């Protein structure tokens, strides 16, 4: 199963995605995409570690090249946290996929699915923020929109989390016995 969990900042999307991954399998991987580059990123990483403590996740750090990740563990659940951070890495870090980032990330998700894992992908809704738009930000927002559309088209379940409440856009997770 592929599930896409979307939401704005502090919407509850990560907590919902973790609960979904926990319900899918007793063997769980947390694919962490954020790199520590300042105090704020360190705080966010610590908060997410605390949130998933005791839930049985094996953390795998992967800032680039999701398709190169080999988790072959049929029946396991993989939580990708998060696609929007991975996209920024792929677009702007040395060695990233550049303009091909959405396709490269989708290829990585497809590989995990082909390996027999259930995949839960967290992504951000940045489309209504109304922030000033630099050319780099326009490139990122356009690429994130494309990536979210690619994932949603392939997903069995698409859920948006707003104020901690799940809003289902494409089948409920319960429809799959979760």
From TrEMBL:
Enzyme active site: 48
Reactions this protein catalyses: adenosylcob(III)inamide + ATP = adenosylcob(III)inamide phosphate + ADP + H(+); adenosylcob(III)inamide + GTP = adenosylcob(III)inamide phosphate + GDP + H(+); adenosylcob(III)inamide phosphate + GTP + H(+) = adenosylcob(III)inamide-GDP + diphosphate
Residues the entry annotates as binding GTP: 7-14, 49-52, 61, 81
Transmembrane segment boundaries: none
Keyword Transferase tagged: yes
Involved pathway(s): Cofactor biosynthesis; adenosylcobalamin biosynthesis; adenosylcobalamin from cob(II)yrinate a,c-diamide: step 5/7; Cofactor biosynthesis; adenosylcobalamin biosynthesis; adenosylcobalamin from cob(II)yrinate a,c-diamide: step 6/7
Record InterPro entries: CobU/CobP, P-loop_NTPase
Single biological process term from Gene Ontology: cobalamin biosynthetic process
Documented EC number(s): 2.7.1.156, 2.7.7.62
CDD domains linked to this entry: CobU
Annotated signal peptide: none
Role noted for this protein: Catalyzes ATP-dependent phosphorylation of adenosylcobinamide and addition of GMP to adenosylcobinamide phosphate.
Family: Belongs to the CobU/CobP family.
Protein name as annotated: Adenosylcobinamide kinase
């Amino acid at each position: 199963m592929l599930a896409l969990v979307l939401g704005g900042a502090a919407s509850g999307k990560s907590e919902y995605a973790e609960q979904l991954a926990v319900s899918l399998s007793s063997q769980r991987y947390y694919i962490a995409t954020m790199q520590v580059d300042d105090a704020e990123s360190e705080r966010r990483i610590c908060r997410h570690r605390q949130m998933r403590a005791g839930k049985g996740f094996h953390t795998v750090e992967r800032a680039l090249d999701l398709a190169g990740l080999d988790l072959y563990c049929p029946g396991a659940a993989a939580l990708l946290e998060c696609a929007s951070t991975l996209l920024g890495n792929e677009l702007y870090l040395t060695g990233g996929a550049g303009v091909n980032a959405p396709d490269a990330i989708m290829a990585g998700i497809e590989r995990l699915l082909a390996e027999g894992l259930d995949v839960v992908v967290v992504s951000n809704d940045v489309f209504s923020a109304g922030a000033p738009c630099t050319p780099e930000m326009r490139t990122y927002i356009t690429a994130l929109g494309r990536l979210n559309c690619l994932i949603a088209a392939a997903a069995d379940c698409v859920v948006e989390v707003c104020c901690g409440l799940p809003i289902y856009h494409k089948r409920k997770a319960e429809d799959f016995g979760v």
